[in-house]
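Quick one, tokens below:
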């Protein structure tokens, strides 16, 4: 059986491998998927990504299948309900941030036509950045691009979306391609 070369961060965990092979670094073109990643990345702040991946289906159920329209209408009662849900990260600030971010996400959609269009407005020529890293140690935690997007999103009121989370988001949604040059899934 042929052994495929992958980015080393995914290790041998089957969930991580599937995420790496099928999602990470693939350009997201629909806002629903974009909002799912934004919500999960914000929940990840201070935690490992595998922790969030393992809770992803629970998040999907708890957060109305990542429908920003529905989440924007969540109430204080919903916050209390979510704080009792052992399937998600039960952090009041992160839960409230997800609801706030849903409302702001919808505002950005109205302004730009889509959230994808908003993020692409920061990219050179509106196209994903393709890096050519040979080792994981070369990949930065943030860049001037993630600084600029994070700064603008913070100015709009988004929570739990600093430059490091923003850069991880850009990698996940394929707006920055950081698959290593020898990774089978780079294209």
């Amino acid at each position: 059986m042929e052994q495929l070369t992958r980015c080393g961060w995914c290790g041998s965990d089957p969930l991580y491998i599937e995420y790496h092979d099928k999602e990470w670094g693939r350009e997201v073109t629909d806002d629903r998927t974009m909002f799912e990643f934004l919500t999960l990345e914000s929940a990840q702040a201070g935690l490992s990504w595998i922790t969030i991946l393992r809770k992803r289906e629970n998040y999907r159920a708890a957060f109305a299948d990542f429908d920003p329209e529905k989440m924007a209408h969540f109430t204080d009662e919903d916050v209390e309900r979510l704080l009792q849900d052992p399937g998600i990260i039960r952090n009041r600030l992160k839960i409230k941030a997800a609801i706030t971010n849903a409302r702001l996400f919808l505002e950005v959609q109205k302004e730009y036509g889509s959230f994808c269009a908003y993020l692409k407005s920061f990219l050179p020529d509106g196209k994903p950045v393709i890096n050519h890293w040979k080792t994981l140690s070369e990949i930065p935690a943030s860049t001037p691009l993630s600084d600029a997007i994070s700064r603008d999103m913070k100015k709009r009121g988004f929570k739990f979306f600093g430059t490091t989370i923003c850069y991880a988001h850009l990698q996940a949604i394929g707006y920055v391609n950081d698959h290593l040059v020898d990774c089978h899934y780079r294209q």
